Amino acid sequence: QVQLVESGGGSVQAGGSLRLSCSASGYTSLRNCVGWFRQAPGKEREGVAGINAVDGTTYYSDSVKGRFTISQDNNKNTVYLEMNRMKPEDTAMYSCAARPGGYCGDLRAVAFAYWGQGTKVTVSS
User: Fold this and answer.
1) What's the pLDDT score for residue 29?
2) Integer Cα distance of 44 and 83 in angstroms
3) Distance CA 51, CA 59 (A)
4) What is the mean pLDDT of each run of 10 residues along the chain (125 residues)?
5) Which residues 6+ apart lie within 8 Å of 51 measured at CB?
6) Whether 83 contacts 16, CB under 8 Å
7) How far is CA 84 from the centre of its chain?
8) Parallel, antiparallel, or unpaired for β 18-26 and 2-7?
9) pLDDT at residue number 118
10) What's the CA gap between 72 and 56, in Å, rounded?
11) CB 3 within 8 Å of CB 96
12) What is the pLDDT of residue 51?
């Protein structure tokens, strides 16, 4: 099994930056793909970034491409989401998720098996 715990959420002004962390435990073979998702009130969950934990390949949705960066620290079993030049529309609950493998650029929520509880991000104008 896989356990995921997010941290780093908070409030930031538009144009600012936040770094979210996803600490993972459990079998590494079950989390070769890790993704970051967000869900705003009344909206569907949106996959914003993914990483192939085996080879480091990264993927981004068009809505965050060029502003967000996903990375991993193997020594800490942690995946990060660096969010820069943030916009009010980035306000959401952010969750990390994992699955054993496949094409890690598939950022559909239904493609992921393991989920954290989420961390709240608020971007003010």
Assistant:
1) 87
2) 20
3) 6
4) 96 98 92 97 96 96 97 94 98 98 96 97 97
5) 33, 34, 35, 57, 58, 59, 70, 71, 72, 79, 104
6) no
7) 14
8) antiparallel
9) 98
10) 8
11) no
12) 98
pLDDT of residue 86: 98
What is the phi/psi pair of residue 71, to 5°? -150, 170
Residue-level length of the chain: 125
pLDDT at residue 19 in the model:
98
* Position 93, amino acid: M
DSSP per residue over the chain, as a string? -EEEEEE--EEEETT--EEEEEEEEE-GGG-SEEEEEEE-TTS--EEEEEEETTT--EEE-TTTTTTEEEEEEGGGTEEEEEE-S--GGG-EEEEEEEES-S-TT---GGG--EE---EEEEEE-
Gap between the Cα atoms of 24 and 43, Å rounded: 27
Q: Which of 47, 54, 29, 38 is nearest to 6 (CA)?
A: 38
